[in-house]
Amino acid sequence: MERPQRPSRPIDLISPPKPRNFQKSMTLNKADIRSLKTNTGTLDRKNEMMTSFQTSARRRSDTGSDVVDKLKEQKELQSQRLRSHVVDELINTEREYVGHLDLLIEMVMKPLQIKKNFITEELLVSSKHLSVLFSNLMQIAKVNKELLRGLVRETMDGGLYGHVFLETVDYLKTYTQYCVNQPASTKLLAELMEENIQFKSFIVALPDVIPEFQNLGVNSFLIKPLQRICKYPLLLRELIKYTPQTHPDYQNLEEAHEKVDGVVLEINEKTRESEMQTLMMEIKNKIVFPEKTDFVLLTPTRKLVLSGEFKMIYKKSHFKGTLFFFNDYLIFTKKRRFDGKLGVKVHFPINICVVGEVTKNGEKTENWFSILNREQFESPVEIGANSPAEKKEWTDSIRHHALLLLKNPAQLGPTKFSYKDSSSSFGTLSALRGRRSLSTKTPLQTHKSSSNLSDMVQTY
């Protein structure tokens, strides 16, 4: 049986279709309203927060540049304060220094120029000794008075302190003579204090008359120029540190620092050379070569590198002696009993010596090393250092200078010598025939020697 068909409804192509439950979809319940209100409030708060954040960011952006400017301004003010502090230190210490120079000249040097020995009526201190004691102190005082005058002037004019030093730097070279002379001045002062009673009484009485001498002795005043000249590069460096590069005196300060530092370096070099000459002269007067020795100790190129007292062994003879290591020679000495001077036992150029180890029972000894004259190949001289570090210092330095001498033979002093020291256990040395040609063998080779060290005490 066929199912009856429903009559078909005409299709409305004009009106839009109505949604199902249309009335229900257009109706909001209470939960929906609460949710809508909640979401709307959240959006409003988010919008408010975003607006507030943007406003705050703009405010921070506006105030950030102000903060940077304020920090920059504070940094500049801080630099100005520090620069003023350095300037104050420079001028105040310069004023104090000039005052001390005047005090030394007026209260010590000038009175000694006319003070006489009340017994002999002669000058208490000779003019020669006064020139050693005070050197060119008056000349230095004039230079520093002019420097102080210029620094004080610039505090009122424009603060061009670098310009003042550039005007004075050439005159600071007068310090060279004073600094080179200072060791001799210190030595003479000590001798006069010990030997000249009236001079000592004069110096000892100074603190009772002059308060400044109560805390500082005359010697402390005499070394002030050395201290002051070394202080200028440090003060100029500090002044440059707190001076802006845009400052009109900045370039002057840099140039002045470079020139003053150069003067100080030159003074130091001259002082070292003078001290080395004095030391070489003292060594010359202290050591004694055998009569038949043809050897010149003092040469323009010869300088002392190291010296020290050691336990030594040579041909089974144990003794304590002094070893002088020059840049071209080694000189072994032993103290003489009758006059206390150092008698020379062995000496030879370092370019013909071989530095080696000392062994005992086939093992190296910790503090001992040996030196062999490779042109004679006699027994090596064995030397006991106080420590492995001292041993290394000596052996490394000897090898280093030997290589330098091989590269530059002109640095070698006179090598001609011939003597026989019959009183020494060193035996007879073979004479070197005139000036020998330098060997091409390397001084870095080592050799081994053995000795009985059980009874040796490694002390100075």
Report what the structure shows.
The protein contains 12 helices and 9 strands. By secondary structure, it is α+β, with helices and mostly antiparallel strands. Strands 1-5-4-3-2-8-7-6-9 form a 9-stranded mixed sheet. Helix 3 crosses helix 6 (175-195). The protein is flat and about 105 Å long. It starts with 21 loop residues before the first helix and ends in a 10-residue tail after the last strand. Residues 415-460 have low confidence and may be disordered.
Instruction: Please compute the radius of gyration using only Cα atoms.
Output: 44 Å
Number of H/I helices: 12
Ends apart, CA distance between termini: 141 Å
Strand order of the largest sheet: 1-5-4-3-2-8-7-6-9
Q: What would the principal axes of the Cα set say about the shape?
A: flat
Biggest sheet descriptor: 9 strands, mixed
Order of helices and strands: HHHHHHHHHHHEEEEEEEEHE
Helix share of residues? 40-55%
SSE arrangement:
Layout: H1 22-25, H2 30-114, H3 127-134, H4 137-157, H5 161-168, H6 175-195, H7 197-204, H8 206-209, H9 218-222, H10 224-241, H11 250-286, E1 287-288, E2 304-314, E3 317-326, E4 329-335, E5 342-349, E6 353-360, E7 363-373, E8 381-384, H12 388-407, E9 448-450
Parallel strand pairs: 1-5, 6-9
Antiparallel strand pairs: 2-3, 2-8, 3-4, 4-5, 6-7, 7-8
Helix pairs in contact: 2-4, 2-10, 3-6, 4-5, 5-11, 6-7, 6-11, 10-11
Short description:
With 460 residues, the chain is an alpha+beta fold.
Keywords for this entry:
460 residues; alpha+beta; nine-stranded mixed β-sheet; 9 strands; 52% helix
